[in-house]
Design brief:
The protein is of the alpha+beta class. It is 37% helix and 27% strand. It has 6 helices and 8 strands. It has helices at residues 22-25, 51-62, 68-78, 97-102, 125-145, 150-154, and strands spanning 4-12, 17-19, 35-40, 46-49, 83-86, 92-94, 109-117, 119-123. The longest helix is centred in the last third of the chain and has 21 residues, at 125-145.
Length: 159
């Protein structure tokens, strides 16, 4: 699967329809791109999964090495809230009303669609900005602990 990347300002219409950005849509093989699962994100956003990634997520949730109560809570939050969304010929999908309310998306206005590697997120732009500001310290801390260099990532650690 191709990597989903970039940020896109998209209009969510009064029918809760959203046209998936061309780059995110055509990143998938023909037989995979016309259906997505949309569910609650970890943050106050929605997360979109193409089929392959959705199957991997469900498998990972089932294998979580945590207590059963916590595992069930995670599964309920993510799997229980998920909706199948079929894209029409204009690459539009209809977001369920309960998920639009969860992410506080405007009923007829701009949303932000962000490619995040294997998934994409759909944000209320104001909440995205607030989350980015709140996360800045954490981001700087993480960058201080890791290297994003491809050559270091593929090289084994010295003994």
């Amino acid at each position: 699967m191709a990597e989903l990347s970039g940020s896109y300002n998209i209009t969510l219409d009064t029918n809760r329809r959203l046209a998936l950005p061309t780059k995110l849509y055509y990143s998938q093989e023909d037989e995979l791109r016309d259906r997505v699962k949309i569910t609650r994100g970890i943050a106050k956003c929605l997360t979109g999964y193409y089929r392959t990634e959705w199957k991997a997520l469900v498998s990972s949730l089932n294998k979580l090495n945590i207590d059963e109560k916590s595992k069930q809570i995670m599964k309920r939050h993510i799997i229980g809230a998920a909706a199948d969304c079929e894209l029409d010929k204009q690459r539009r999908l209809v977001l369920p009303e309960n998920l639009v309310a969860y992410a506080e998306l405007p009923e007829n206005g701009e949303v932000l669609v962000v490619g995040c590697g294997e998934v994409f997120e759909i944000w209320n732009p104001a909440l995205y900005q607030a989350d980015a500001v709140a996360s800045e310290e954490t981001i700087q801390e993480i960058f201080g602990r890791i290297s994003l260099s491809a050559s270091q990532a593929s090289s084994p650690e010295p003994d």
